[in-house]
Amino acid sequence: MHCFGGGWEQACRSLDLGFLVSFAGNLTYPKAQPLRDVAARVPLDSVLVETDAPWLAPTPDRGKRNEPAFVTRTAARLAGLLGVSPEEIASATTQNFARLFHLPL
Q1: Whole-model pTM above 0.70?
Q2: Domain ranges, residue 63
């Protein structure tokens, strides 16, 4: 689910269909607590992170042109929500991406 912004019910329906849930920079926005609440509940083996560049730059670069390098900020926020290290979120999202696109690791 590209640039997920829905609630828990939509996330569950997506997961039940075998989709992965992808989070962008809007996860870091101060008023995005409902989205962070959803992200904290998505299983680690079902998440991705994305830039959605050139839009949705994460905090503190909100309002600027988004760049692929900024995805680490979204990943770090997601790692914190899921209670894992940045290295673990990097590994999990890499594995999830490879599985989704049938690519070898």
Answers
A1: yes
A2: 8-100
